[in-house]
């Protein structure tokens, strides 16, 4: 029987965890631990890092993991790179469950930037009302542009006040509808949206809302990830797992 380590923290990982549990696959779901109240999962959960690629490889060996699935966020570049290296070190098959990137549609007013630092630099100029739709990890970087009033939306309440002199904070858990986000942007008189190209459908409402309101979007492009096998459908992971397990059994491993 396969023994799976699923690197999660996304809605796709939760959906895959349910499929694996229903299929009776021995699975451990690993979180980075940034969300204080993650959703309950149907498989055993571990929280925290591994200590880099070598630590992850050691953990897989010690726990006899036969298959590694990376279903982390598209911007979890370090974790994904470590997964590629660890899989090579441990000789463990790896597959990534990813979201297709968002593509601009007619009516979108996107400005592409390479990273968070470039997004901060793009905000130079007169004060505006800006929605930072990128989670709490990178909020502090925008203190370099203190002239703006920032709208923040977090899943969990922060332990301390965000380091922005002019801000509004909403604590809420999605998914959000287009009407939800249109209402939020109108309520806060938003003039500009900053977000990461996370892809998928769960967080897309803000882009549709910005399009309908004619608002510009600063879109942070995805970081580069080492080459690996990628699929976009959890069922494709199950098919891969069945095939990989059958191949291992044929080799007598």
Overview features:
21% strand; six-stranded parallel β-sheet; alpha/beta; 253 residues; elongated
Written account of the structure:
The protein is an alpha/beta fold and 253 residues long. 32% of the residues lie in helices and 21% in strands. The chain contains seven helices and twelve strands. It has helices at residues 11-22, 52-62, 77-90, 116-122, 178-187, 205-213, 234-250, and strands spanning 3-7, 26-31, 45-47, 67-70, 94-97, 110-113, 129-133, 149-154, 167-171, 192-196, 217-220, 230-231. The strands form two sheets. The chain has a six-stranded parallel sheet with strand order 3-2-1-4-5-12, sandwiched between helices. It is elongated, with a radius of gyration of 20 Å. The termini are close together. The model has no long low-confidence stretch (mean pLDDT 92).
Give the secondary structure arrangement, pairings included.
Layout: E1 3-7, H1 11-22, E2 26-31, E3 45-47, H2 52-62, E4 67-70, H3 77-90, E5 94-97, E6 110-113, H4 116-122, E7 129-133, E8 149-154, E9 167-171, H5 178-187, E10 192-196, H6 205-213, E11 217-220, E12 230-231, H7 234-250
Helix pairs in contact: 1-7, 2-3, 5-6
